[in-house]
Amino acid sequence: MSRRVAGKGFIFTIFMITLLVLAHLWQKVYITQLSQKIQSLEQIKKKIEGENKQLLVRWAQLSDPQRMEGIAKGWGFSYPSPQDVVFLIVSPSKREQGKKRGK
Asked: What is the distance between the alpha carbons of residues 18 and 22, in angstroms, rounded to a whole number?
């Protein structure tokens, strides 16, 4: 019977070693996959950052006041003369005055 016990112990030891080796290999494969995913995401991040820089430059070009002024002049727009500007003084209505007083 001692040989059977020794045989079972040996088989158990081999089984555990095999299990540990497989777990170690699975861990290495998983780490490699994660590393590849990280590299892929970093490349995507760099691409998006580059696109963002290009968009910021384009936005700065398009929002340049001198450029807008040139386009407006090309369409026939001009600054108003002082006579063209009219200021309206509006007195609050009785209803609005009542709201302010708490009525």
From this structure: 6
Q: What are 65-93's pLDDT values in tens digits?
A: 999 999 999 999 998 898 889 888 888 77
Q: Which amino acid is at 4?
A: R
CA–CA gap between residue 100 and residue 91 (Å, rounded) = 13
Number of domains in the chain: 1
Domain residues for 17?
Answer: 2-101
- Cβ contact 94:100 at 8 Å: no
- What global pTM score does this model have? 0.54
Give the list of residues 6+ apart from residue 61 with CB closer than 8 angstroms, or none.
67
DSSP helix/strand/coil, 85: coil
